[in-house]
Design goal:
The structure is a single chain. The protein is mainly alpha-helical and 168 residues long. It is built from 9 helices and 2 strands; from the N terminus they run H-E-H-E-H-H-H-H-H-H-H. The protein has a two-stranded parallel ribbon with strand order 1-2. Helix 1 runs parallel beside helix 2 and helix 4 crosses helix 7.
Length: 168
């Protein structure tokens, strides 16, 4: 991703209106952002560009239940997975691997974060929501979704909007 920023800004005689957004890929609240996120942040800083490294693990961690419930291809397994996900606390929801589920070999941070999760929920959440979970975003125009998104964002979405507003 940092290569993309470098390529898009190379040789420009002006500073482009650009906000780079990247998943943090952090495994838990105390974890550091991924090497890719650090490289992108550094490339943006060198070029005077805004960079938003998400506070949560990945963009899908901002999905509120309302959008997970409305998934078009939902079946009974998906509904059980949503119910199990909904038992997680906010930090667990923020760093749960929405696509892949609970790690087979969790890091120390993941082990601590999900310690005490009942076995029934753990078993259901071992498999995540799949690689196409991002399709839940197509329902973002659902009535009442703004408040749900802001609540799940826990302040980070407002931060991203401010970065974007500065550029326009």
């Amino acid at each position: 991703m940092s290569e993309e920023v470098i390529a898009r800004t190379r040789g420009l005689p002006y500073r482009p209106r650009l906000v780079a957004v990247i998943d943090s890929d952090r495994k838990g609240p105390g974890d550091t952002v991924s090497p890719e996120a650090r490289a992108l942040r550094r490339a943006c800083e060198e070029r005077g560009l805004s960079c938003w490294v998400l506070a949560k693990r990945e963009a899908e961690n901002y999905l509120p239940r309302m959008l997970l419930d409305g998934r078009q291809d939902a079946d009974a397994r998906h509904e059980r997975r949503v119910e199990a996900w909904d038992t997680l606390n906010d930090d667990q929801k923020d760093f749960f691997d929405m696509k892949g589920g609970l790690a087979e070999r969790p890091s120390d941070i993941e082990r601590d974060l999900f310690d005490g999760l009942p076995e029934a929920e753990r078993e259901i959440l071992t498999v995540g929501f799949g690689t196409n979970v991002h399709q839940c975003w197509i329902l973002w125009q659902v009535r009442g979704i703004r408040d749900e998104l802001l609540a799940r964002g826990r302040g980070d979405l407002e931060h991203g909007v401010e970065l974007i507003r500065k550029e326009v």
